[in-house]
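If you are new to this repository, start here. Below is one unmodified record pulled from the training split, so you can see the exact layout before writing a loader.
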Amino acid sequence: MTPIRHNHPDGPENPPGGGSDSDPILDAVRDCVLAVGVRRTTLTDVARRAGVSRMTLYRRWPDVRSLVGDLMTREWIAVATGALPEPAPGTAARTVLVEGLVAGVESFRAHPLFRKIVDVDPELLLPYVLDRRGASQEALLGLLVGGLKDGHADGSVRAGHPERQARALLLTVQSFTLSLRTMTDEADPELSSPAFLAELRGILERTLAP
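And here is the target side for that same chain:
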């Protein structure tokens, strides 16, 4: 995957190492955040854990927030791409898209980094919910647009503006990802997380069907 442009104002637009699958510095900041949360993570902690100098970090990221932004981009894109099923011959693009989105919501909610941020530093996510799109959201929109165009081509997705449809889908799955636990009652099978994921699958199918 090509480097991804960052939309948050706190970091450089394309810092080296952003989005890398095996960057030891991003691995180190992930471990720090999982241990103590974002607010208590320092560049000194990250440098020590990664075995590099603080100046090495400062040359690439101005602060912890921009470093965590790159970490989230890497992790969220990996979750989204990993959730997309390999299409079997004859499988409709709509089926691949719907199953990938539902699996993605489930995987996001189970992801240790996502759970830690939601539990300890939820304000970190607010700008990307209320004010602007982040790099990972742009990447996800690209994946969705590609899947929608495949669906338009095979006739399994209703005709429409692919970018608008992709943004509407992302709004839908974001709400399930971020707010699902406010609506579930795990003691009631009809209001459990699996029941709501099944409801999401139905919503997406009806939204995309021709």
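Two things worth knowing about this chain: DSSP finds ten helices and no strands in the chain. The longest helix spans residues 64-83.
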